[in-house]
Amino acid sequence: MCGNEALAEAAIIAGLDAYFGYPITPQNEISAYMSKRMPEEGRVFLQSESELAAINMVFGASATGKRTMTTSSSPGISLMQEGISYLAGAELPAVVVNVMRGGPGLGNIAPSQGDYFQATRGGGHGDYRTIVFGPSSVQELVDCMPLAFDLADQYRMTVVVLADGILGQMMEPIVFERKPRRKLPPKDWALTGAKGREQNIVRSLWLGDRVLEEHNYKLQAKYEQVQKNEVLCEQYEVETAEIVVVAYGVAARMVRAAVDRAREQGIKVGWIRPITLWPFPTEQISKAADEFRIFLTVEMSNGQMVEDIKLAAAGKTPVLFFGRPGGGIPSVDEILERIRQLTIPAKR
Amino acid sequence: MMLDTSSILDKNENRETRYKMRDTRNEFYEEVIIAGFGGQGIMLAGRLLAQTAMKRGLEVTYMPSYGAEVRGGTANCMVVIAEREIASPLVSKPDSLIVMNKASLTKFAPRLKTGGLLVINSSLIDEEPELAGSIDILAVPADKLAVELGNPKVANMVALGAYLQKHGLFGPDAAAACLAETIARRYHHTLPVNTKALHRGAEFAKTNHR
To answer: Which residues contact A315 (CB under 8 A, 6 or more apart)?
Structure first.
C-alpha cells in the first residue's frame, strides 16, 4: 500500500463520512482508492468538477455535522484557499491533505515542501489558522489521520496534513490501529434539520458594529488553546549537541541519516523534528537555543520553516539554512557536508 | 516484525525520542535500484522484493518513479531493505542495481557503490559497461529465458530471481510465496509462470556466474 492509499484507509477507519476531490498527481491514488472503498462502506465519494467545488462540498458536508475531507496537491490546494478561509470563518471542521509537489505555478510533479508558508499562515484571506501536520513516514501519516479528524471536530477548524510526493508514492510496512479517541463535544451547531430546537446558522459573514471583531477574538482564543495544547515534536540528542538540525516530513529522514553518520565521525549534532508545523514547537526550539548551539534547517524549499526557527531562536543562536526547491531533494551526503562545514568554526 | 507501532502521536507529549542511533557501518542495509522500460514490470519486481523482505521481518521502503510512466518510457524504483528503521527511501548510491535496458545502464551504473552488484539484462544490453572500481557483474539473458518459459513478460522475474540468488538475501521461493499478494488478482493466472521465472533466474545465476 502506498502512502496515498494508506492515508485514505486511515481516514475511512477514522470515520470519514464524505470524500470530495479532483484528480492531480502525485495524489491520484487517494481518489482512486476512495472511489472503490467509500461506496463499499456506504459512504459518500464524489469526484467534483474542480478543486473549488471540492472544498465547497466539504463546507456543505461539514455544516451538516459529518466528517469530511478533500485531498489535492499544491496547485489544487491554492485553488481551495477561498473555501478554507470560509471554513475558518464559519468554524467548520475539515481535513485537507496536501501531497505537495514542486511550484510555483503548475510547477512539476516532484516532491516538495514549498507550501509551508501557505499551510502554516492560513493561506486564504483573513486572520485565521489551520492546524498543520508534517508527518515523515507512511506510518505517521496513517497515525495522524484520526488525530486530524479529532482535532478538527474538537476545535471546529481545518486540519491540513502536509505530505509530499515521496510520502504519497512510497510504500512502507504499516499497521492500522483503532485507538481510543478523544472525547469530543457534541456537534450541536450542525445543520441537521431544526426539528424541536432553535435553528442553527452556519456563516462566515458577520456584519454589524464590532461583530466581526468579536468573532475574531473568539477565533484567536481558540487558536491560543491549540498553540498551548497541541504541539508535537520529536528531538534527538539535543542536550549533548553543539549543532541542531531542524527538519520536518521526509527531509527529516535524510537529516536523521546524515546526523547518524556525523555522530559516527564524532560531531556533536542532534535534531529536532516538528510534527505539528502549526502550532509550531516554538518553546522547544527556544529552549534548545538557550545554550549556544548552531541551528541548521533543512527543507525541500528555498527556506520557509527557517523563518519560524529564527522567530523561536529570537537571535540567541545563529540559524542557518540548506534546502533545495522545485522538486530537488537534499541528499544525505549534502546534508552531512553542511554539518561538517559547521564544525570548522566550532573547533577554533 | 520490528515495526514500532506505538506512535509518538498517541502520547501527545514532546519527549526525547526513542530513536536510537544506527551504526551504519555494521548493519545490514541493502539499497537497490531496478530500472528499465515502462512495461517491463520494473515496479512489480520492486514491489515483490519489498513485500518479500517485509514478510521476512525486515524494515523496507519502496519508492517508484511516478507520474509520467508509460509503456516504452523509462521506469525505475528504489527499494531499501534494512534491519532497523530506514532513514531515506531515496537511493543515490545503490548497493545493487538491476538494469533491464541500455538507457538504464547508462543512467544508473555510474552510481553503483564500489563492490556493488550489477545485474544486466543481456538480452537487451549487448555490451559490458566500463566501470571504475570493482563491481560484481551478472549478465542474465532475461528476455531470452522468459521467452523460453513461454511468456516474454516475465523477464523481470528472471532478473529478480538471478539477483536474489546472487545476493543471497533470500531464495526465489520466498519471493514466489509473496507473488499472490503482490500481483493484482486479474493476473493470477500468471502466478505459475512468474514462479518458474524466479527459479529460472536463480538457476541461471547459480550455474553461469563466473
So the answer is: none
Backbone angles phi, psi at A49, to 5 degrees: -85, -10
Mutation target vs A (from B1, B8, B9, B21; most A CBs, 10 A cutoff): B9
| Co-location of A194 and A244 in the same domain | no
Q: Does B92 touch chain A (CB under 8 A)?
A: yes
Count of residues in chain B: 210
Residues A103 and A177 both lie in one domain: yes
Nearest CA in chain A to B87: A253
Cβ(B119)–Cβ(B98) under 8 Å? yes
Is the bond preceding residue A274 a cis peptide, omega within 30 degrees?
Answer: no
List domains and CATH numbers for chain B. Answer: 27-208 (3.40.920.10)
For chain A, list residues whose CB is within 8 angstroms of any CB belonging to chain B: 25-26, 109, 139-140, 143-144, 147, 165-166, 169-175, 177, 179, 230-238, 250, 253-254, 256-257, 260-261, 263-264, 275, 281, 284, 329, 331-333
Cell numbers for A86: 470560509
| CB-based contact A235:B16 (threshold 8 Å) | yes
- The answer, for B89 touching chain A at a CB cutoff of 8 Å, is yes
Same domain, A203 and A75: yes
Range(s) of the domain holding residue A8? 3-229
Domain match, A146 and A73 both: yes
- pLDDT one-digit tens code per residue, A101-129: 999 999 999 999 999 999 999 899 999 99
Q: Indicate the pLDDT class of residue B126, thresholds 50, 70 and 90.
A: confident
- The reply to whether A46 and A117 lie within a common domain is yes
Q: Which residue has the cell 492546524?
A: A131
SS3 A90: coil
Question: How large is the average pLDDT for residues A52-72?
Answer: 98
DSSP-assigned beta bridge partners for residue A45: A19
Domain-terminating residue out of A206, A229, A252: A229
Number of structural domains (chain A) is: 2
Q: Do A331 and B92 touch (CB under 8 A)?
A: yes
Distance CA A171, CA A148 (A): 21
**Mutation target vs A (from B14, B21, B181; most A CBs, 10 A cutoff):** B14
Same domain, A225 and A239: no
Residue B75 contacts residue B37 (beta carbons within 8 Å): yes
**Same domain flag for A196 and A304:** no
* CB-closest option in B5, B14, B61 to A231: B14
Residues A215, A260: one domain? no
| Residue at which a domain ends, from A229, A248, A265 | A229
Please tell me what DSSP assigns to residue B185: G
In 3D space, the residue among A298, A292, A333, A328 whose CA is nearest the CA of residue A313 turns out to be A292
Q: How confident is the model at residue B13 (pLDDT cuts 50, 70, 90)?
A: very low
CATH of residue A86's domain is: 3.40.50.970
State the pLDDT at residue B132.
Answer: 59
Instruction: Please tell me the distance in Å from B98's CA to the nearest CA on chain A.
Output: 19
**Assign residue A158 a region: left if phi > 0, alpha if psi is -120 to 50, beta otherwise?**
beta
Whether A129 and A102 have beta carbons less than 8 Å apart is answered as no
